Amino acid sequence: MQETIKNINIDLLIPFENQPFKKRNGVENEELKESVKENGLLQPIIVHSFSAGTFEIISGHRRVEACKELGMQTVPAIVRDMTKDEAVIAMVDSNLQREHLLPSEKAFAYKMKLEALKHQGKTYGQVVHKSRDNISDNESGRQVQRYIRLTHLIPELLKLVDEERIAFTPAVELSYLPENEQKMLAEEIAYTDATPSLSQAQRLRKFSEQGRLSIDTIFAVLSEEKPNQKEQVKFKTEDIRKYFPKSYTSLDMQKTIITLLEKWQRQRERNRGEAR
């Protein structure tokens, strides 16, 4: 595979088509911008030639956004000569190394990579069942299949999975519900402020397969008291919204709070160490 390294005008860089990895706000993004501002772009981004003199980003979307926000005109880039399917596989592999990936990001990334590998002549069985390393170095073929199932969820339910309101395994069960039943479920979750456990999700799927799932059934299942339900600390959005930029989602605010608490804990540990 041929590759060259050169500085590329930032206006000639375009995001990878249909790439599933979302732009991050919050502390992580600010820390990245601060690093680029102080040290420059230490690691070149990876691109491949696209059309009309432009370059499609394979790895480095967040770094490019940081450079744009800082007013940089050019960025160092590794330009690789590759087919579209090779580019898809490289894009997925490079981004799967990131920390704090959302379930939806992994789901659509695995699906994109699977389709690219199938275009190269590999069957679904070869890709998912027999050779786990074709899709993921870290997860089994069965787990990859589960992630891909999440792409069958409607956006309202998938958002709840990303926000960790619906756990991963129940979400896989819910992905087997037809779209109209998923919409009913999303409405009842909003109404009851309750999400299904694994056993409840399995029952909802069974009712669906039997043709017995109705809005009343969903309400009855969600209204059940869950055993061993953990106590939760909740904040009203209106109480904390004023401390965050308007662009922040609920998930952005949650991650920022956790990051700040982790920093506070580390500072307390340092203070205790100095006091000894």
Describe this structure in words.
There is one protein chain. This protein is of the alpha/beta class. It has 4 domains: 1-99, Conserved hypothetical protein from pyrococcus furiosus pfu- 392566-001, ParB domain (Alpha-Beta Complex); 102-152; 157-222, no CATH class; 236-261, no CATH class. Helices cover 53% and strands 9% of the residues. The protein contains 13 helices and 5 strands. The protein has helices spanning 27-39, 61-69, 84-95, 103-119, 124-130, 141-149, 155-162, 168-174, 179-192, 198-209, 215-222, 237-240, 250-275; strands spanning 3-9, 13-14, 45-49, 55-59, 74-80. Strands 1-5-3-4-2 form a 5-stranded mixed β-sheet. A hairpin with a 5-residue loop joins strand 3 and strand 4 (55-59). The chain starts with a strand and ends with a helix.
